[in-house]
Amino acid sequence: MLDYFPENVSSVGIEHDELFALIYYICVGIFVLVNVVLLVFLIKYRRKKGVRAYHFHGDNLVEFVWTLLPTVLFAGLGFYSDDLWTRMKYQDKVPQADVEIDVMGQQFLWHIRYPGPDGVFGDKIPAEMSSSNPFGIDPKDPNGKDDLVVQNTFNLPINKMIVVHLSSVDVLHSFFLPNFRIKNDAVPGLWIDVWFDCFKAGKYELACAELCGSGHYAMRGVVNMQSEEDYNTWLQGKYDAVTASLQPENSTAEVASPAAESTEAAEEEIVVEESVTEEEAAH
Ligand SMILES: [Cu+2]
Q: How many domains does the chain have?
């Protein structure tokens, strides 16, 4: 049954799967034990002629044991998994990042922000957040001018520590990378760090795992995990386009700044979702 999992491609996913397997086998063991005992008792104490039912008022020892055993089991699993949980979820335990990106959930797409050719993210100002600027990049901050924002499909390097700064524009979403065993709520107004690595190049699904509205089912992206060289080539191509769009001779031609580009894509996506919803409603 454990083979039904999507393939794991992250080192932290190996730890998750080991923990899951342990709990799974404990549950299977208890399930078998309980059902065998049930079956034996059903047969042994079935209705027989001449035998009357026997009533008694409990057994302190038995009750003590069946309270103690689950307590020890659950507390044990809690302590055993505490280290992994702490490392995954505690914001002060986030490892040193090789690559940092911002991810913003929005009904019904993902915005992904890279720091741009200067390698520095522009400041974020909540008051600046809009459909054309989902991250609220400060228009006055020169570091933000070259920030690259893409939608749904994005690339990252393998064998690097990736730290995602995660938030949401509108409602609760959930950043779910099944192949990395990563799932974390994206909460409006909160920036939460999520980290992972990956040891196998390939294209992996990014799903939204929180029912966030009528287009929730279609809120998915693809993360393309590449070798460092391929990733750098991809990123350089994107950054060259950003740099070109920031040249003074192009600025009059309204060549989309990264933020403006993201608006169009965002609106396009949303329009598609709405039309699908309407079609469905018509049926
Ligand atoms: Cu969502």
A: 2
**DSSP label at residue 49:** T
Report CA(207)–ligand 1 centroid distance (Å). 8
Is residue 82 domain-shared with residue 133, that is, in the same domain?
no
- Same domain, yes or no: 211 and 161: yes
CA of 174 to the centre of ligand 1 (A): 6
68 shares its domain with 123? no
Beta strands in the chain (DSSP E): 99-106, 109-114, 148-151, 153-157, 162-168, 173-177, 182-186, 192-196, 202-208, 220-226
The yes-or-no verdict on residue 116 having pLDDT over 80 is: yes
pLDDT at 249: 67
Lowest mean pLDDT of 126-130, 175-179, 192-196, 252-256, name the range. Answer: 252-256
What is the rounded average pLDDT for all residues in the chain?
86
Say whether both 77 and 101 belong to one domain: no
Name residues with Cβ closer than 5 Å to ligand 1, which is an ion.
Answer: 173, 208, 212, 219
Tokens for 260, please give them. Answer: 């403006």
Q: What is the CATH number of the domain that holds 144?
A: 2.60.40.420
User: For 111, phi and psi rounded to 5 degrees?
Assistant: -100, 135
Instruction: Say how far apart CA 267 and CA 204 lie, in whole Å.
Output: 24
Specify if 4 maps to a domain: no
| Among candidate residues 115, 123, 119, the one with its CA nearest the CA of residue 139 | 123
> Which of the residue ranges 126-135, 139-148, 194-203 has the most confident prediction, judged by mean pLDDT?
194-203
pTM (2 d.p.): 0.77
Has residue 2 been placed in a domain? no
